Amino acid sequence: MIEAVGLTKRYGAKTAVYNLSFQVRPGAVTGFLGPNGSGKSTTMRMILGLDAPTSGHATITGRPFRSLPNAPRQVGALLDAKAVHGGRSARQHLLSLAQLSGIPARRVDEVLGVVGLQDVAGRRSKGFSLGMGQRLGIAAALLGDPQVLLFDEPVNGLDPEGILWVRNLMKQLAAEGRTVFVSSHLMSEMALTADHLIVIGRGQLLADMSVKDFISANSADFARVRTPDTEPEQREKLTAAIGEAGGQAASEPDGALRVTGLPLPRISDLAHEADVRLWELSPHQASLEEAYMRMTQAAVDYRSTNDPRAGLQQAAAGYAPQGGVPGYAGGRPPMPGQEQPNPYAQQVPYGQVPAAAPGAGYPPPAQGHPYGAPASYGAPHPYGQQPAAPMPPTAAGAPPAHPAPAAGHPAPAGAPAPLPTPQNEDAR
Fold first, then answer.
1. Which residues have a Cβ under 8 Å from the Cβ of 266 and sit 6 or more positions away?
2. For FRET with 126, which of 133, 169, 277, 401 sits at 20 to 30 Å CA-CA?
3. pTM of the predicted protein model
4. Could you tell me the sign of the dihedral formed by the alpha carbons of 326, 329, 330, 335, in that order?
5. pLDDT in tens, 357-398
6. Which domains does the chain have, with CATH numbers?
7. Which residues 6+ apart lie within 8 Å of 232 measured at CB?
8. Could you tell me the CA-to-CA distances from 205 to 31, 69, 218, 295 in Å, in that order?
9. DSSP string, 45-106
C-alpha cells in the first residue's frame, strides 16, 4: 500500500503540492488525475524518494522508499520512458538493472516477452519509437516482479493495440493483489481501467473515491426524450406535463428534450397520460471526462483561448486587412503580454530610411556579435546615428553621391567606403 500524509513541496515561492494525503490500496487500479501542472509527477517523485518533501511524508508498505530493502524487487516505476542510455540495447539496459538488484538474467527475457520487445531486444534503444520506449519502461518496472507499481502516462505514444494491452495488464496486476497507481490524461482509458480515483488540482486533493461515485458526484444524469417532429403540439403538451410533475425540460439543438428531475418510468407515465407518442426515451449518464472537466474547471492553470488571427491572411505590403486597427502590424493590436510592434518595421521608398520616433534610436549592437561591429557606409547605417533626411537625388549620368565615410574608414572620393572583413569570435 502507498500512503501519503500531509505531503507539501515548495520550489522557492512556488508551491507544487500542498498538504496532500491519500492511500493507494492493493487489489485495485487507482487512477491519478489532474490538470497539467497540478503536481502529479512531483507527488510520484516524492513517493519514490526522488524529491524530498518540504513537509509531510510518503510510505510504501509502511516504510519510506529509501529504507526499503532491495527496493527494485518491491517497487516498480515508470516515470520517464526516455531514462535509457541510447547506446545500449533493450536487453543490455534491462540486464544492467537486473544485475544491480540481484535479479536473475532469465527474468530479462521474460519481461521482454511480456512487453512484446523480444524481436528487437538487440537493437539500440536510441532508435526506438515513443511507443517502443514506453514498452521498455514498463518492462523495467516489471523486472523485479514487485508488489507495488507506479506508472506515469504509461500509454503515451502507444497504438490502439498497445493501449488495450496496457489496460489489460493493469487489471491483471491489480487482480493479483498488487498496488497499481497510474497517472494519465486519457479519461476514456481511466474510465475503462481504474477502479478508484485520486484527483488533485494545483497541488491539493479534490477527490478520493471510486470512479462510479466520482461521476455521480460531479455530473447530472438526464433523460433524452423525442416526440414526433411533425407534431410540435405533442412536444408542448409533454413539456407542460413534465413541469407540473416537478421536472425540468430543456430543448436540445436537434429538437429533442433534455429532462432532469424525473426518472424514466415517470416520464413514460406522463407521456401516456398526456396521450403523447414518444420516438425516443433514453437515459444519459455523464462520462468520466465530463465529470472530470466539471470538477477541475477552476483548477486549470493553462487554458487556451481563441486565436484572434485565426482565419486571417497576412496583410500584403501597404494593405491593412478589413476591420484592422490602424497603426498595428497586420492590422491587429498585440496580444496581452506581447511587445508593441517595432516602430521601424515599416515600408519606405527605396533609397530612404524611416525617420526615428522622437527620442528613440536604434538599439546598440549586442555584445559578442559574431561578426564584430556592423559595417557602415557612414551615418545612414541602422546601428549608427539616425539621419534626419533621405539621401539626395543625383543628376542624370552622374555617379551617385555618398555621404562622408565614418571615422576610421577612409575611402576614395566619390566611392563608397569598403566593408571591413567580417571577423568571427575566435579571430576577435
1. 245, 247
2. 169
3. 0.65
4. negative
5. 444 444 444 444 444 444 444 444 444 444 445 555 545 555
6. 2-214 (3.40.50.300), 218-296 (3.30.70.100)
7. none
8. 13, 30, 15, 11
9. HHHTTSS--SEEEEEETTB-GGGSTTGGGTEEEES-TT-S-TTSBHHHHHHHHHHHHT--TH
